[in-house]
Amino acid sequence: MSSSSASPGPPPPADGLIGAARRHLGALARSLAHPSHPPTPLLAGSSRRWRRLAPYVVVTLLTALFVPVTFQILTSDYQVGRGLAALLALAQAGPLLMLAHRPLQAWWIVLCADVVGAVVLLTPLTDPSPTLVRLPPLPQELPWPWPPSVILGHLFVLLALGLRETRRTLVAVWLTICAAGLLLYLIGSDRDAGGVVLLPVLGAVVLVITAALRERGEAQRRLAEQETISETERAGRTLLEERTRIARELHDVVAHHMSVITVQADSAPYRIEGLPDQARAEFDSIAASARESLAEMRRLLSVLRSDGTDGERAPQPGLDRIQQLVEATVRSGLRVELSMGAEVSEAIREGLPQAVDLSAYRIAQEALANVVRHAPGARTRVSVTVAGPHLTVLVVNDGTGRPGSPLESTGTGHGLVGMRERVRLTGGTLDTGPLPDGGFRVAARLPLSAATPVPSVPLASEDS
């Protein structure tokens, strides 16, 4: 086989390493040129004003401290002229004012000023003006290339960087500091290398600690956001489940009425003599529409019912069974007192609206289940009254139970979500909340006449 038809081999490993090194170096250079955050203060999103102002106060104090200290060290220890010392102090410590919103740009200015200051300190100058230059050579015992004030100021800059920038930017900053120190050491090779190593070592410690704190804070923030999203999704799922349960229960109520309409329409020609043909046809149409509606409702119910579950065989409960509910709750260990006036019994005998009857029972059931879940053993009072055109269900506990017990009684488990949906269904009102003595109160007021349900409102979060 000719060489022209041979398949090209893999690229040499050296080319791959060189290409990867170029890509990484390019990424590091870009990270040094472009901050990873907008020019906003560290605590700009805080709700408290003093927290938003805190970064500005801190950087102002740092600048006010480091500018005179740097000037004093340069003039007294390093014998730098006052004019040049003032310029270096402003260049090395003045950018600390930028740490609140532009720490990367401040670091560049501080690094360049520190390098220039190190060259000035090392090089004896011959200008006779005592206000601009240092004439004697730098003594060997003085730290170089980074004076103490320079190291401390630079560490504060790195602290601000570690709290704001990405890990790649911090690595690039540290490598740049090491390169600058190495270059200065090559220039002043007669000096002790300890001063060159001190800033990279301390800087690495500061960057690692602050980066770890920043990443931990970001992880906690993301976790809190995820928990908020999960809680919202859980509340929405609970709301949908409760609405589906209510729809399944109301199927029995509506199906009963539709069945009665069908039977009455079918039997009307036999019960009423002398009906004209037009009336018979009308009754037949009513019966057919009722049967078709029943079939549609059964199909809807098959969609609402969960996979693998059968329909409920028992009739839907009402207030005539609330005494049995209270007795079952008492047997579970809860001290419950039931108060139901004669007017309620009379209303039950005369026949309550089925939606109201079912909703009142379910609200009492959920309220008692919540007491058993959250305050088992608390003394509880259940009161059902009729006042004018409204039925009121009141469940109050005194808060003397044992919070946090896992014991649970009957109920849908949807708590206040289910209560609100059932009250909204009947067009009533619900009042819930803690009592001054530590108990809890649930009061539902349901209209006994036909009412227009309150429009549904999406709930961001609900207590369960």
What's the short version?
It catalyses: ATP + protein L-histidine = ADP + protein N-phospho-L-histidine. Strand 2 and strand 3 form a beta hairpin. This protein folds into 3 domains: 173 residues, no CATH class; 61 residues; 129 residues, Histidine kinase-like ATPase, C-terminal domain (Heat Shock Protein 90, 2-Layer Sandwich).
Structural account:
The protein is an alpha+beta fold and 464 residues long. It folds into 3 domains: 173 residues, no CATH class; 61 residues; 129 residues, Histidine kinase-like ATPase, C-terminal domain (Heat Shock Protein 90, 2-Layer Sandwich). It is built from 12 helices and 5 strands. The chain has a 5-stranded mixed β-sheet with strand order 1-2-3-5-4. α2 runs antiparallel to α3 and α9 packs parallel to α11. The chain is elongated. It starts with 12 loop residues before the first helix and ends in a 17-residue tail after the last strand. The N terminus and C terminus are likely disordered.
